[in-house]
What we know:
Number of helices: 3
Distance between the termini: 28 Å
Radius of gyration: 10 Å
Strand content: under 5%
Order of helices and strands: HHH
Structural class: mainly alpha
Number of strands: 0
Largest sheet: none
Amino acid sequence: MHVNYKKNAAAAAITLQKREHMSAAAIEAHLASDNGEKFTKAEAAFAVDQLHE
């Protein structure tokens, strides 16, 4: 089974934006945080970029 972490990070970013009304910077920080979603910085940046498309 292959896990697409970028796709999962993008889905989490959309949820955070809709439910928590977080800024893009806050979403990126949360996604990459050890206390948050624990995605890599690259995955978090990709996710935030997807919010703008």
